[in-house]
Amino acid sequence: MGAKDAPRCVNVAKAATFSSDARVNREIMATDTMVTRMNCYEPGQVTPMHMHPGEDEVIYIVEGGGAIAFQDREDLPFKAGDLLCLPGDQFHSIVAGPDGRTVLIYFMTPDYASVRPSEIDAVQARTSLPGERV
């Protein structure tokens, strides 16, 4: 959707989709200059350790809670209503809390990349991230 296209509205609550197998990540809106994606987690599900080189990530927590785990710093807890900004040069993982579902939306440029640390485990290796370049 470019600047001249019609505006649109997405109901975030209705767009939420969950799976008992793994967190669900899906695009909910995109333009030529921005993409908005949604992550939906059952309790305890994770997004594997990764970073977005050269691009900060803005995350809004819609529902639930958990923590952002980093390689080189302490965890950053979050809860519904929080707005987070993660620097693009830091490896991070998103861990949903144990007490209920978690929903977040995040904003990036359409051509963003996700890269992982070299010491990933076999489970993480099977789950690709949006924007991930192998």
Mind explaining what this structure looks like?
With 134 residues, the chain is mainly beta. It has a single domain (12-116), classed as Sandwich (Jelly Rolls), CATH 2.60.120. It is built from two helices and nine strands. It has helices at residues 12-15, 122-125, and strands at 24-30, 35-41, 46-50, 57-63, 65-70, 76-79, 83-86, 92-96, 102-108. The chain has a five-stranded antiparallel β-sheet, with no helix packed on it. A hairpin with a 4-residue loop joins β1 (24-30) and β2. The longest helix has 4 residues, at 12-15. The protein is globular and about 45 Å long. The two termini are 27 Å apart.
Question: What is the count of distinct domains?
Answer: 1
CATH class: Mainly Beta
Q: What fold name stands as the CATH topology? A: Jelly Rolls
User: What is the CATH superfamily classification?
Assistant: Jelly Rolls
Number of helices: 2
Neighbour order of strands in the largest sheet: 1-2-9-4-7
Give the class from helix and strand content and strand pairing. mainly beta
Estimated share of beta-strand residues: 35-45%
Mean pLDDT: 87
Q: What is the radius of gyration? A: 15 Å
Helix and strand arrangement:
Blueprint: H1 12-15, E1 24-30, E2 35-41, E3 46-50, E4 57-63, E5 65-70, E6 76-79, E7 83-86, E8 92-96, E9 102-108, H2 122-125
Antiparallel strand pairs: 1-2, 2-9, 3-8, 4-7, 4-9, 5-6, 5-8
Short description:
The protein is mainly β and 134 residues long. It has two helices and nine strands; from the N terminus they run αβββββββββα. The strands form two sheets. A five-stranded antiparallel β-sheet has the order 1-2-9-4-7, with no helix packed on it.
